[in-house]
Amino acid sequence: MAIDPLRTRNLSAECANEDGFVEIIRDFTYHFRSGSFYHLSGPEFGGKHLLLQILGLLLPPDSGEIIVDGCLVTDLDIDDLGETRNRKYGFLFSSPFLLPAFTVLENVAMPLFKIAQVGTSEAKVITEEILEIVGVSRIAATEVGRLDGLDEMLAALARALVHHPRVLIAELVGNNMREGEAETLLSALRASGQRLGLAVIATLAPQISWGHADVRLEIGPQGVEEFIRRDPHG
To answer: Which of 27, 75, 80, 168 is most buried, most CB within 10 Å of its CB?
Structure first.
């Protein structure tokens, strides 16, 4: 039986942001499946941002358990938790954080040297495969400083995937992007997750409306409600 990339049991947390709004998660138990795209939605301060950070191991819960690839991680020390996050997770932030003087291929390959510690020739093969999956092989040799905003984010997506994580955390997808560009990025996210067999968990920028997630989890004061898309292949 396949192991789910990510599971939670009775996850609870409460956190006040810098504006004083309190986000609350209560008794969240869930299985995140391989190859599925999960959209965390709901009111702006209803808990979706807090839940995304906790699921990404960026904040600890107040109580409950997180199981990553079959292993309980909530009791790990800070070093082991960081190792799990580096190896099992990919992150796509609302800004690309690429190095502008390096090419796309060089930027995307960097996690392979830092995390997977593979040789140069193997790294090139793996990186070219990921660039093809994301659909940006055409810009492999282009310096990042010459890219437009969409291609920068697609390159950042490729970098987040290159070490073959089990979970991809995507924050405020579509932020500072036109709607058509955001839809292209979201489609690439979903297709890449399906092809690589990982769970994609994302929040969207407030102005983006996108109805193609496999599962939408509505987070609010009453808890978490699941909405499953009836046509997962559409």
So the answer is: 168
